[in-house]
Design brief:
Layout: E1 6-10, E2 17-22, H1 29-35, E3 40-46, H2 50-60, E4 65-71, H3 80-92, E5 100-105, H4 107-119, E6 125-130, H5 133-139, E7 144-149, E8 152-159, E9 164-168, H6 177-194, H7 196-210, H8 214-234, H9 249-259, H10 266-283, H11 289-301, H12 314-321, E10 334-337, E11 343-346, H13 351-359
Parallel strand pairs: 2-9, 3-4, 3-5, 5-6, 6-9
Antiparallel strand pairs: 1-2, 7-8, 10-11
Helix pairs in contact: 3-4, 5-6, 5-8, 6-7, 6-8, 6-10, 7-8, 9-10, 9-12, 10-11, 10-13
The structure holds nicotinamide-adenine-dinucleotide and glycine.
Binding site for NAD(+): 73-78, 107-111, 131-132, 144, 153
GO cellular component, one term: cytoplasm
Subcellular location: Cytoplasm
Length: 367
């Protein structure tokens, strides 16, 4: 590890684990040796990330018995069918219960590899090496794993924590600008949930982040992981507070599912979802016009969309929003905002105002 590496902890008792953040970490053999017991490692990656980083990771894993599975790239491949390829690769390599599944890639690879680790022989070791901004600030931390169903996003999966998260900030150099912005959506989310000072820092530092200034990116990743780790430590299995991490996601998942997985990036859909949550919060009287404008402005400055695609009408969005893991006894629950930097999970909203939000983006078909 080098001098600029930061180490955080996700505090889950005996299942606590570190998050390492710094440049060059994915090629550092010491972290792997410390956190990978046994001899067998299955590296799961995809066809885009493999040519960039697979050999470097494999070189750092010298001494282990290695196997690799290279998946097709894209959200539409986050499916049971592709997940089964990982299980098949583990069986074909004759890997035992002491093996480790290592996810090298963005959130799609991480979620699928994690679900394979959770299921193979009822659970084997798991290590996350996230290579997108989104996966470094969100999906690699906290143990949510799974795949999509054609009828609903992330509807099949398990909570399964990794042994460590290795966030190599230098891997972001090869990420395209659209993907960087998608990651910034989840970063903004933490400010809105319960970290107003971070939101204000983002308002001051959006340009350095877009310019990929190393200090700014490193701070944003560290602060996001700290915020997420705190919530996960308090409510690992999402019986309460953890649902706040889904700010913007009920609207966003509806957009992703409605458009067909992969058309809109997850972060883009979440960005619009946060704007819609701000709109509904304002209609409920919980958020003023100025606060709503600050949310929309920051999202736009991150070069993210602020309105849903015109192809999805409000009625369809409403229908899709009903397929959500936060629905309880048939009632939709949403993460909404009560003032800047304060969010809550609630089913106490006037459904007429939700319809007004959905139709407020240029459509009048759901009122
Ligand atoms: P992704 O995994 O599809 O990666 C985005 C693109 O970047 C892909 O084309 C990928 O191949 C490419 N890529 C990855 N690393 C790269 C690199 N270093 N250089 C160049 N290209 C690179 O998308 P994502 O935004 O990382 O993750 C989105 C997924 O994460 C969604 O499926 C979402 O549901 C899930 N997610 C999960 C959680 C969780 O808690 N488990 C949280 C948020 C999001
Ligand atoms: N991204 C939502 C969660 O991890 O709970």
């Amino acid at each position: 590890m080098n001098a600029v590496t930061k180490t955080l902890t996700v505090d889950l008792g005996e299942r606590s684990y570190p998050i390492y953040i710094g440049p060059g970490l994915l090629g550092d053999p010491r972290i792997y040796r410390e956190h990978i017991p046994g001899r067998q490692v299955m590296v799961v990656t995809n066809e885009t990330v493999a040519p960039l980083y697979l050999e470097r990771v494999c070189a750092a894993l010298g001494g282990y018995q290695l196997a690799r599975v290279i998946l097709p790239d894209g959200e539409r491949y986050k499916s049971l069918e592709i997940w089964q390829r990982i299980i098949t690769a583990l069986l074909e390599a004759r890997f035992d219960r002491q093996c480790t599944v290592l996810a090298l890639g963005g959130g799609v690879v991480g979620d699928m590899a994690g679900f394979a680790a959770a299921s193979y022989q009822r659970g084997v070791n798991f290590v996350q090496v996230p290579t997108t901004l989104l996966s470094q600030v969100d999906s690699s931390v906290g143990g949510k794993t799974g795949v999509n169903h054609p009828l609903g996003k992330n509807m099949i999966g398990a909570f399964y924590q990794p042994r460590c998260v290795i966030a190599d900030t230098a891997s972001l150099d090869t990420l395209d600008d659209r993907q960087l912005s998608a990651g910034l959506a989840e970063v903004i989310k933490y400010g809105l949930i319960d970290d107003l000072p971070f939101f204000e820092w983002l308002e001051r530092n959006m340009e350095p982040l877009l310019a990929r200034e190393a200090d700014a990116l490193s701070h944003a990743i560290e602060r996001s992981c700290l915020d997420k780790a705190r919530v996960v430590a308090a409510d690992e299995l999402e019986s309460g507070r953890r649902a706040l991490l889904n700010l913007g996601h009920t609207f966003g998942h509806a957009i992703e599912t409605g458009m067909g997985y992969g058309e809109w990036l997850h972060g883009e859909a979440v960005a619009v979802g946060m704007c819609m949550a701000a709109d509904l919060s304002r209609r409920l009287g919980w958020f003023d016009m100025d606060a709503q404008a600050r949310v929309v402005d920051l999202v736009a400055r991150a070069r993210l969309p602020v309105a849903p695609p015109p192809d999805l009408d409000g009625a369809r969005l409403l229908e899709l929003m009903a397929v959500d893991k936060k629905v309880q006894q048939g009632r939709m629950r949403l993460v909404l905002m009560q003032g800047m930097g304060h969010s809550l999970v609630t089913d106490q909203f006037d459904s007429g105002l939700l319809r007004a939000t959905l139709s407020g983006y240029g459509r009048n078909d759901v009122c």
